[in-house]
Amino acid sequence: MKILHMATFLLVVVGALNWGLIGLFDFNLVTALVGSISGAEQIVYTLVGVSAVYELFTHPKSCMTCSTKK
User: Fold this and answer.
1) What's the gap between Cα 15 and its chain centre?
2) How far apart are CA 4 and CA 55, in angstroms?
3) What is the pLDDT of residues 12-48, one digit of tens each?
4) What b/e sequence results for 16-48 when a residue is b if at least 16 CB atoms lie within 10 Å of its CB, and e otherwise?
5) Helix, strand, or coil (residue 36)
6) What pLDDT was estimated at residue 21?
7) N or C: which end of the chain has fewer CB within 10 A?
8) Alpha-carbon distance 29 to 17, whole Å?
């Protein structure tokens, strides 16, 4: 499960950075990287969204700061 957590966390960070780049510079990193591949952009956005939902529900269990375990 640690690998899944790391992969989803990375995808959430990529999504957040992409939104930051869009907001600041009107530059879409995902389109720049995979825009020429048919359907790839939609797959990346779907994976980022699913990763965000996964992190939302599993974060308190895996985060040392948010964990209720002391």
Assistant:
1) 5
2) 10
3) 999 999 999 999 999 999 999 888 787 999 999 999 9
4) eebeeeeeeeeeebbeeeeeeeeeebeebeeeb
5) coil
6) 96
7) C
8) 9
Domain ranges of the chain: 2-62
Residue owning tokens 């950075």: 17
- CA–CA–CA angle 21, 27, 30 (5° rounding): 85
pLDDT top residue among 62 and 7: 7
- The burial class, CB within 10 Å (0-12 / 13-18 / 19+), for 8 is buried
Distance CA 6, CA 17 (A): 16
